[in-house]
Amino acid sequence: MEKQLDESRFEQRLQLWALRIPRELASAVTRLLRSGYLFDMPRVKPVVEDPESDKNRLVVLSEKIQSADLSDIEEKVYDSLKQLCNIDVVPYSLTLGYSYWSAGHVAHLNIPDDLLPYKDVIAKVIYDKNYPRIQTVANKVGSITNEFRVPQFEILAGKSDMVTEVKQYGATFKLDYGLVYWNSRLEHEHIRLVSLFKKGDVICDMFAGIGPFSIPAAQKGCIVYANDLNPDSVHYLRTNAQINKVDDYIFTYNMDARVFMQNLLEVPCSGNKSESHVAAANYSSEDINPTNESSTSNENHSDVRESCQKDINGSSMMSTTTKRRQETSNGGGAYCQEDANHTKKRNNKRVKGSGPPPIKPWEHFDHVVMNLPASALQFLDCFSGLVQKKYWTGSLPWIHCYCFIRSSESEELILSEAQNKLNAKIAEPIFHRVRDVAPNKAMFCLSFRLPSECLKGESEDHIQSVDC
Ligand SMILES: C[S@@+](CC[C@H](N)C(=O)[O-])C[C@H]1O[C@@H](n2cnc3c(N)ncnc32)[C@H](O)[C@@H]1O
């Protein structure tokens, strides 16, 4: 065990964009960009000095702005900005160090065995030195064995209420530490993956937790089907979708991930709508995306590989192209066992001209997120024969499957396990090392395009009638 605290291990380096503007325009520009385009993290100022000239200031842009051409900024706002000043976009890198991190009001410790006799002293110092920012000091007890991946905690100081709010990249997440899974060390990975998605993409988050992939994806304009087996996680997922005002873009489910994917991909019987089909039939072909933009299925995928590979090469986390896209879907309903309350609420709320366009997931989705590293590989078999070739349009989806790899194992071994489960060969797999979780164990994300052999109807053997 390390005897010295290595504070650099806590550092996170963010690659952002900033606007260089005359300093007297700082207030006007920040006012204009306040609607979600400014960098927004607690205790970090979005306007900073320009090291090149004290006549200028740098306005740090949200991590949602992925490209220097500012195509992620709404046209109206961009035009006003252009009238106000010259658009001079510069790269800006920001390092958040050891002292920056905390998770809401809860200090979540993992005290090693040899320090357990001092746990109360440690907790008291942390509490006294950080109150009122820290109001609960909790120590993780034992290892996580339950299927919801929720650790057990012993409260060492402060109040026992573990409901708190944390911020990740401008999104707010409410959670109860005692009831749901949360790991603030995955922040970087959440945003890395979401940076591969494009506005209008359809995302299936099979193990969504309280939404750290789903919420930023929806904030980006993706349509998200988010599922978790833990009812408390789904409760906070919905709460967080509301807090972040993206509940029109997120459909929540509380079921086993395999059943979720099967339901999502089930093709509705023509002229024989089920309950849930009828419930979702409020989506008419006249409903449009607020921005009138959505994605075509094909053009995204080369971007993903490019971004994944850039990432692997360590040169860039961000995809560099944000294209204006056309809608692909026309009419029809989002078929699935959508959560009843959510459906009701959506039906009450929905007005013409707002919300995402109608989606038929059995025809197309773009990405599947599988963050259950201990066993996500085992779930890959659900993709074999799941997608029906005769209904599918556009490119096959990307699967992002998290896993652990021990030092005694190799990427080849994991790949062959994945291929066995899929019963198909994976072309050009991409392994991204997420973080070391133990001296001999690291978390990885295996990304690959669903092999065409997995499609139902791809070979004679697979062909089955789907007519009802
Ligand atoms: C490692 S957590 C990831 C949560 C979230 N994606 C994140 O990054 O914080 C895995 C989640 O999978 C959920 N889970 C476990 N088994 C499941 C299953 N069979 N089907 C659906 N969800 C499951 C757990 O409740 C937990 O919230």
Q: How would you characterize the overall build of this protein?
A:
The chain has 468 residues and is of the alpha/beta class. The chain contains eleven helices and 16 strands. The protein has a seven-stranded mixed beta sheet with strand order 12-11-10-13-14-16-15, sandwiched between helices. The protein has a four-stranded antiparallel beta sheet with strand order 2-3-1-4, with helices on one face. The chain has a three-stranded mixed beta sheet with strand order 5-6-7. α1 runs antiparallel to α2 (75-84). It is globular, with a radius of gyration of 23 Å. The chain starts with 11 loop residues before the first strand and ends in a 19-residue tail after the last strand. Residues 271-353 and 460-468 have low confidence and may be disordered. The site of S-adenosylmethionine has 20 residues, from loops.
Q: Which helices and strands appear, and what pairs or packs with what?
A:
Elements: E1 12-22, H1 26-33, E2 47-49, E3 56-60, H2 75-84, E4 89-96, E5 106-109, H3 119-130, E6 136-141, E7 152-158, E8 163-168, E9 171-176, H4 187-194, E10 202-205, H5 214-219, E11 223-227, H6 231-243, E12 250-253, H7 257-265, H8 275-279, H9 300-313, H10 340-349, E13 367-370, E14 398-406, H11 411-422, E15 430-438, E16 441-449
Parallel strand pairs: 5-6, 10-11, 10-13, 11-12, 13-14
Antiparallel strand pairs: 1-3, 1-4, 2-3, 6-7, 8-9, 14-16, 15-16
Helix pairs in contact: 1-2
Bound molecules: S-adenosylmethionine (SAM).
Residues 147-149, 181, 183, 186, 207-209, 212-213, 227-230, 233, 256-257, 371-372 line the site of S-adenosylmethionine (SAM).
Domain SAM-dependent methyltransferase TRM5/TYW2-type: 100-452
GO molecular function: tRNA (guanine(37)-N1)-methyltransferase activity
Enzyme class: transferase
